[in-house]
Amino acid sequence: MDTPKQNVCEEQVYNELFKTNSKTVFNYLYYKYGNEEKAYDVVQEAFIKLWENCKKVAPEKAKSFVYTVANNLYLNVLKAEKVRFKHAKETLEVTHESPEFLLEEKQFKLKLEQALSDLPENQRSTFLLNRIDGKKYKEIAELEGVSVKAIEKRMHLALKSLREKIDGI
Amino acid sequence: MQENYLAKWLNNELTDAELEAFKKSDEYASYKKIATVSSSLETPEFDIEKAFAENKLARKTTKGKVVKLNPSKIFTRIAAAIVLFIAGAYFFMNTNEHVETALAQTELITLPDASEVVLNADSQMDYSIKNWDQKRHLTLNGEAYFKVAKGKKFTVETSSGTIQVLGTQFNVTNRPNYFKVTCFEGLVSVTYKNKTLKLPAGTSFLVLNDKIIPTEAPKTDKPSWITNESTFTSIPLNFVLAELERQYNVTISSSSINTNTLFTGTFTNKNIDSALKSICVPNNITYTLEGNKVILHAKNAE
Per the database record, which ranges form the Protein FecR C-terminal domain (chain B) (predicted)? Predict the structure, then answer.
């Protein structure tokens, strides 16, 4: 709200925020709660909330505002419901790998998915935001509202328990 | 190995030595595979453009909500509520009555105790019907004839003086520079400039231009205007003409005549022509009547 150009109420500023962040917010919710439709609705709702409160939210705070609102909205929807993490179907890429290798790959993926769904929400969302969306620890720390060190801890623990699950320890 | 070394490894933050050591560990292969495979995982489809279009639509429909938060609307609502409350309170609690007559109009008002008031033309009267039996009090501006029912003290307040009675018939005239009280029955107490005097039946009290003028007793048992006549006894012509204006809703131009001439006589409140004749003929005045304008001229002594 310092200058008119930086106001979230400005169409341009808002549109930019939506286009750069909506997919990541969606993924974030999906990693956490594993429901595609709900994640989509919550993303929409969270951005509408941003629009309604555009006068009160500074542009630099808009991103974490959306994440916080989205998370809260989702928790409201969720409450007692237990959602299992299920991953999208793997793409059937044409490869020249041997069938044995492909089978092994497929099994590994299944194991990984299973292990991912057993992770705590926080570790899972942090891990996947980094691995899939390529988000830096610092960025994840900002939108989750925790320190970088806490994110590192989550990454470390996530990786550790994934390996233990997959290797059957 | 440093704290959270797995996270550091993914972020390429391990020292060369650490990395060497890590690569030699048994778990390295598994970690490497997890890291690679996990980043190749697919997320459900999210069409940013489609989502944006929906968002735009939703924002338009929620615009009303934004307007609702407008503080001036809230203020308007509060104001409306207050106005409603005051209006309601006013209607519930206000028991004040206001009666007003226009020019050329009289009105009969019956008060809560069956006292009667006849209001002459161009007069206003205010009173409160609340506790009327305990406090019979009204304010008058103009002229009125009262028939007061017996009871507690009955007070008529005017800008010139106050009249108090217990139960009589009397007439009060309170016009600019003209204050007259006539008692027709019983006893009337008039307070004028902090002096109170008793007015027995059949007497009048007259103040003209702040001077008390001795006046004749009325010959009738009620004021003449009740029977649509205006009667004057030695009253300067300007007051007579003012009354004529009130009774017929006309404007009189009298600049060319001497309005201080005293007039004794009666004019009817029914017919302006004969009323004008009643005033003009004895005073040697000619008049012209055009619409609601009357022009008076002194008759030349030729």
Answer: 231-296
Which residues, other chains included, contact B99 with Cβ-Cβ below 8 Å and sequence gap of 6+?
Answer: B107, B109, B119, B124, B125, B126
Contact criterion met (CB < 8 Å) for B46 and A51: no
**β-bridge partners, B124:** B100, B141
Place of tokens 């050329």: B104
Q: Kindly report the pTM of this predicted structure.
A: 0.44
Nearest to A87 among B30, B41, B58 (CB): B41
Structural domains for chain A: 4-78 (1.10.1740), 99-166 (1.10.10.10)
The H or E element containing residue A101 is helix A99-117
Contact B41 A128 (CB under 8 A): yes
Structural domain harbouring B247: 228-302
Task: Say if residue B263 is in the same domain as residue B157.
Answer: no
* CATH number of the domain that residue B134 is part of: 2.60.120.1440
User: B98 in a domain, yes or no?
Assistant: no
Digit-coded pLDDT (tens) for A84-125: 444 444 444 555 667 777 777 778 888 888 888 888 888 988
Residues of chain B with C-beta less than 8 angstroms from the C-beta of A108: 33, 37
Distance from the A71 Cα atom to the nearest Cα atom in chain B, whole angstroms = 18
Q: How far is CA A110 from the centre of its chain?
A: 20
A107: which chain B residues are within 8 Å (Cβ-Cβ)? none
Q: How big is the A-B interface in CB pairs under 8 Å?
A: 109
Tell me: do B223 and B116 sit in the same domain. Answer: yes
Judged by CB atoms closer than 8 Å, whether chains meet at A30 and B65 is answered as no
Asked if residue B248 is part of any domain, the answer here is yes
Does the ipTM exceed 0.85? no
Tokens 């040697």 correspond to what residue? B284
H-helix or E-strand spanning residue A42: helix A36-52
